[in-house]
Design a protein that fits this description.
The complex is a heterodimer of chains A (about 180) and B (about 550). Chain A has about 180 residues and is of the alpha+beta class. Chain A contains 6 helices and 5 strands. A 5-stranded antiparallel beta sheet of chain A has the order 1-5-4-3-2. By secondary structure, chain B is α+β, with helices and mostly antiparallel strands. Classes of the chains: A alpha+beta (about 180), B alpha+beta (about 550).
């Protein structure tokens, strides 16, 4: 009996250690990009705009590296692309129990350079994270993850689009100013 | 000294005014007078001459050479000094390699060559009127004093004017609808002063025909930089001008791309020393063992690594993108109306131009590292090569074993440029002159090369091909603050920054099979010894017990 209890406790501890060590890789995904930071971001922006049927619009583009540089530290380029879909955000925001998840809005994709000189795309594992908040959120976030996969699918034959620096209007802004975001 | 005196004088004045006000009070007007006196003292020039008071400059100058004549009335030897410099001659023979170099003689993989393109290229010459191969290098009035000594920021030499500024109102850029007023030479002449980041940068930040194009570590973000971008040039800190390091002696400026100092073993510069040396090195100020206390371990790196390897983590860290590649072979595409086109990339930089082909740009670029002993071998117009291999426009010489080399960070600019397909030589191309032969007029590479080669007196087969080329640029500006230096682990790991450097053993990065085998052997023997010892003790104990 004692052996069974000790084994059970050890199993839990082992699971906890493994989960703790793998949590970052499970929750976040990193994908290498064949393009530079600006071009990667611009191509993602175009893909987001082309999924407007699913309610997606661009909410903004942020450059946190610039702010850090202005405070006096060198950091490689980082661009945050913010996008939102009212189709997905609506049901979550409508419900008292899930409204707090607005803290995760708008959906953010990060594009950055690492010290190997290459460009990477960082995404949240929306489906896995969504499952933690019940079936409704899990289902919605599953769709978000499917769309995210399309955001980072690049068509090499198409020319590089212009990076959209100003925050676009309409859509996710819910009729208010675009910089209100989701 | 004068700075200390000025500061002390201003402080004494302010102290006297403050004490006076405390004792007897002071009317507002008196404060104002005192303020303006203090301001005047603070603003007082360190120079012994105020050029705005010179009657010789009280002239409505019609041209640059007229200004120079006025300058030479007092600075009688200045032009003669300038005539001996690389900045004037664009011509240099490297005493180590005997190669005939200088901007006028080398071919690069940007706009390629100066001959037949003088009017445009000489916008960055420190002279007036170099528009063909008949320029008089002995004419003193052709030296341009203002381009280096302007303090107004209003003096600009535009491409196409053979080194002159515009003397009349001029549309610039061409067909832009924007007009530059005529250059006010009198005002600029009355406001001359020391060189600055802005005056040096007018050419050196715009090498290759535009901001940040050529060097990668020099661009207009250094005109007014913050500390993180360059700890020496930090506008609100040390605020170095270029001449703090690139000191000048009789107008010859220290530092050279043609004969760089890769390993300065002379230690820090002693004031008054008669030693002829390049003052534009890190060591000239910081010595070869600059790390103190717990960082002193770092000094063990300085025999192999240039300071720049750790202290410049990336180049093009400012606001500008630097050009990384240039493919001339794709030039000449037109729109549906037969007009030349320009296409911009996501970064807002032109990535295709009918006149020039395709480009790529980047920022915050991790350098490529090379052993370098200061000797650079150039592929010149008379040199032949194998076009199936990448042609190195300039090869940095060096190795881990020659005792003269350090590892240097470099920008390697990659191009695909015109060459003589039969003779396997680089070519001189007429790009920009207002002749019909110029590439940017007719988009005909053969015509343009033919004219350029004839102009330079070089043989040309008549067949133009495109060959891949590389050109290396040492990275030495944009020095980051020490807290932003490259972390140890960026090299001391597998596939780290120096992974491609031969002749190095980097703990954590390399495995030498022999050392690994010896280490494993020692560990195995230790284990075996422990086990044997334990076993013997165990059996002895059993037997004894």
């Amino acid at each position: 009996m004692l052996k069974a209890v000790v084994g059970f406790i050890l199993g839990i501890v082992l699971f906890g250690v493994i989960a703790f060590n793998m949590a970052d890789k499970m929750m976040l995904r990193e994908v290498a990009s064949p393009y530079g930071v600006e071009e990667t971001a611009a191509r993602i922006q175009r893909n987001i705009q082309e999924l407007s049927d699913n309610g997606w619009t661009l909410s903004g583009l942020r450059n946190p590296a610039k702010a850090v540089a202005n405070s006096g530290t060198n950091v490689p380029p980082v661009l945050l692309i913010e996008a939102c879909s009212t189709k997905y955000s609506g049901p979550i925001l409508k419900n008292d129990a899930t409204r707090i998840l607005s803290i995760l809005m708008p959906c953010t994709i990060t594009v950055y350079k690492k010290d190997d000189g290459k460009t990477y795309i960082g995404l949240m594992n929306a489906a896995l994270m969504g499952r933690m908040f019940g079936p409704m959120v899990g289902e919605i976030m599953g769709y978000v993850q499917e769309d995210q996969a399309k955001f980072i699918k690049f068509d090499d034959s198409r020319p590089a689009p212009k990076l959209i620096k100003k925050k676009p209007g309409g859509g996710a802004a819910g009729g208010a100013k675009s910089d209100d975001g989701c | 000294m004068s700075f200390i005196k000025n500061t002390a004088g201003t402080f004494a004045l302010m102290l006297a005014i403050t004490l006076g006000a405390m004792v007897g009070g002071m009317p507002t007007t008196a404060w104002a007078v005192a303020d303006s006196a203090a301001d005047a003292a603070a603003k007082k020039s360190k120079s012994t001459a105020d050029h705005s008071k010179f009657e010789e400059l009280d002239v409505d100058f019609a041209s640059g050479p007229e200004v120079t004549k006025a300058c030479l009335e007092c600075h009688t030897e200045a032009a003669k000094q300038l005539h001996g410099t690389k900045h004037w001659k664009w011509d240099y023979i490297n005493p180590d390699t005997n190669q005939h170099l200088g901007k006028h003689n080398v071919i690069n993989n940007f706009c390629t060559s100066v001959p037949s393109n003088y009017k445009f290229c000489t916008a960055c010459h420190i002279g007036y009127g170099w528009e063909d191969d008949k320029f008089d290098f002995t004419a003193e009035e052709k030296v341009d004093c203002l381009v280096c000594h302007d303090t107004t920021g209003k003096y600009k030499k535009l491409p196409g004017l053979a080194g002159h500024p515009n003397y009349e109102e001029m549309e610039w850029p061409p067909k832009s609808g924007k007009f530059r007023p005529a250059t006010d030479l009198e005002n600029i002449a009355k406001n001359v002063g020391k060189t600055s980041r802005q005056t040096c940068g007018a050419c050196h930040f715009r090498g290759g025909g535009g901001d940040a194009v050529k060097h990668g570590d020099l661009d207009t973000s250094l005109v007014n930089p913050k500390r993180h971008l360059d700890v020496h040039m930090d506008a609100s800190g040390l605020n170095f001008s270029c001449s703090e390091c690139h000191t000048a002696d009789a107008h010859e400026v220290a530092g050279s791309r043609y004969q760089p100092t890769a390993k300065d073993e002379k230690g820090h510069l002693i004031p008054g020393s008669k030693d002829e040396r390049n003052t534009a090195t890190c060591v000239a100020c910081h010595d070869n063992a600059p790390h103190k206390g717990e960082l002193s371990k770092m000094n063990e790196h300085t025999d192999k690594l240039a300071c720049q390897v750790c202290h410049i983590p990336a180049y093009a860290r400012g606001d500008q993108f630097t050009k990384m590649t240039w493919d001339w072979s794709t030039g000449g595409k037109m729109d549906e109306n037969g007009k030349p086109i320009k296409i911009k990339g996501s970064d807002g930089k032109v990535k295709y131009d009918s006149k020039k082909g395709d480009f790529t740009h980047d920022r915050y670029v991790i350098p490529e590292y090379q052993w370098f002993n200061g000797e650079v071998n150039w592929t010149l117009a008379d040199d032949t090569f194998d076009p199936n291999e990448v042609v190195k426009i300039n090869s940095f010489t060096g190795s881990s074993t020659d005792g003269k080399s350090r590892i240097w960070p470099t920008k390697v600019f990659r191009g695909k440029q015109m060459y003589d397909k039969v003779n396997n030589k680089l070519v001189i191309t007429s790009l920009s002159d207002d002749k019909e032969s110029a590439l940017w007029k007719n988009f005909d590479y053969t015509k343009a090369v033919n004219y350029g080669m004839q102009y330079a007196g070089k043989e040309f087969s008549g067949e133009v091909g495109f060959v891949e080329t590389e050109m290396s640029w040492p990275i030495t500006h944009m020095v980051a603050p020490k807290e932003d230096a490259v972390d140890c682990w960026q090299c001391h790991k597998e596939n780290g920054r120096l992974a491609n450097i031969e002749g190095l053993y980097i703990p954590g990065a390399n495995n030498t099979p022999m050392i690994d085998k010896v280490g494993l052997g020692l560990a195995a023997m230790t284990l075996l010894g422990v086990l044997l010892h334990g076993a013997v003790r165990y059996f002895m104990h059993k037997r004894g017990g």
